[in-house]
């Protein structure tokens, strides 16, 4: 039997289309405690959408062993103070499960921290990133456009949003030349 998939990736808009697409928005008010410049953070409208995640609802409940989810994160460009917009980031509740990210549009960094050691991988269209288990991971938009990155993770993984300073000992700022620089959390 020939059958068409009910979900498609649109390579022009970088979005998912079709049936059962779920969308989740993360707004400025959801990111309290995530940015180092508190007064710059408080100047933002709390309703500002910082990123959107769309994913296919494949009917599997989180926690189901053996399955996978597929989604796309769209992270807006910008800085708070001089710190680039970022996603919350998380560990997996089931710690020893990995994930793939795949760059679709824009320019950014994938921050991965395990046992206090941070690796920053450059995310560009076409870049493939393996995130090992036991590793906190987040996206940072260092470009001028939307950063769109697809992800594939296990239904079993779950999300553990540990306090950001516990997950990530470093931050990425825009320097005077407009380039990303890494600084340790003070
Ligand atoms: C990717 C995946 C999702 C995650 C999303 C947003 O699409 O890793 O599991 O939820 O990014 O990241 P966060 O949950 O850290 O806000
Ligand atoms: Zn993850």
From TrEMBL:
<keyword id="KW-0312">Gluconeogenesis</keyword>
<dbReference type="Pfam" id="PF06560">
    <property type="entry name" value="GPI"/>
</dbReference>
<comment type="similarity">
    <text>Belongs to the archaeal-type GPI family.</text>
</comment>
<feature type="domain" description="Glucose-6-phosphate isomerase prokaryote">
    <location>
        <begin position="27"/>
        <end position="163"/>
    </location>
</feature>
<protein>
    <recommendedName>
        <fullName>glucose-6-phosphate isomerase</fullName>
        <ecNumber>5.3.1.9</ecNumber>
    </recommendedName>
</protein>
<keyword id="KW-0413">Isomerase</keyword>
<keyword id="KW-0324">Glycolysis</keyword>
<comment type="pathway">
    <text>Carbohydrate degradation; glycolysis; D-glyceraldehyde 3-phosphate and glycerone phosphate from D-glucose: step 2/4.</text>
</comment>
<dbReference type="InterPro" id="IPR014710">
    <property type="entry name" value="RmlC-like_jellyroll"/>
</dbReference>
<dbReference type="GO" id="GO:0016853">
    <property type="term" value="F:isomerase activity"/>
</dbReference>
<dbReference type="InterPro" id="IPR010551">
    <property type="entry name" value="G6P_isomerase_prok"/>
</dbReference>
<dbReference type="InterPro" id="IPR011051">
    <property type="entry name" value="RmlC_Cupin_sf"/>
</dbReference>
